[in-house]
Specification:
This protein has about 110 residues and is mainly alpha-helical. It has a single domain (about 1-100), classed as Arc Repressor Mutant, subunit A. The chain is built from five helices and two strands. A hairpin with a 2-residue loop joins strand 1 (about 70-75) and strand 2 (about 75-80). About 25% of the residues are buried.
Length: about 110
């Protein structure tokens, strides 16, 4: 199981989920900054995001999450939908082994 966990790619939806659970509502720019910091903690081989196109990838993921009513954008601030926090926690936990600080959100 450990080999599987270490081979898992880190995608934008789990990173966005973690960032919003950790920091609450934030602008797209702040979300990109936080995700950039998180990605830097992930081993290079597990990064499924292009740092060159990070803003576009995050934007695309947010659109998908919004269309599924996982997140909303109000006044330029992205936030988790309260009734979807368990789903976002699931996504965030999928990358917990790469981000030691994430363990506090797993509970």
């Amino acid at each position: 199981m450990g080999r599987i966990a270490q081979a898992m790619p880190v995608l934008s939806v789990p990173l966005i989920s973690y960032a919003l659970l950790e920091g609450g509502a934030m602008s797209s720019a702040d979300l990109c900054l936080r995700i950039t910091a998180l990605v830097q903690q992930v081993p290079q081989g597990n990064r499924a995001l292009s740092m060159d196109d990070l803003e576009m990838e995050i934007s695309r993921a947010l659109e998908g999450m919004q269309s599924r009513a996982l997140v909303t954008n109000e006044g330029g601030q992205w936030r988790a939908m309260p009734d979807q926090v368990p789903v976002l926690r699931f996504y965030a936990n999928s990358i917990a082994h790469f981000l030691p600080e994430i363990s506090a959100l797993a509970k």
